[in-house]
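Chapter summary example.
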Amino acid sequence: MKHPVSIRPITEADTDKIVKWRNAPSVMEHFIYRTTLTREDHLNWFHNRVQTGDVAQFMIIDDETGEEVGSVYLRDIDPVNQKCEYGIFIGEESCRGKGVGSAAAKLALDYAFKELKLNRVFLRVFADNPRAIKSYENAGFKYEGTFRDDVIIDGTGYDMVFMGILKREWEQGE
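The structure predicted for these 174 residues follows.
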């Protein structure tokens, strides 16, 4: 069942919620960089990456409740090569496993291809996160390869799965 969601651009007023979610262990364990995010870190990201257009970041809204439940973003937007990297986190645990991530991904891809005029959106995900991989597949991303021991965390190597979607694939799936 598709969960009804919408997205809206983040604002500076979303800082405390983003910081709270991002620092939750259940969110942080799926990030490559696992240092604690401070308000100052997020405000720096917001002013120097989001407001400059290097990143398009959105709050995910649960349309049934009207509540913000997570964030989705397109980072390192490269207009020359018409590509960017996709990322998401569902901050509210009660909204995980309900299709919120797939639905939000489709909205972000819509923005990437229609508004930003990109040709490719890619992502990286830990190979041992099958739930996220399934969500990305549901949104239209395709497996592109696995980089073995691509990320080292506390001395342990982790495989990363790379997935991507091209504009023509997205258009065919619309």
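To summarize the output: The beta strands are 5-9, 56-62, 67-78, 83-90, 120-126, 142-153, 156-166.
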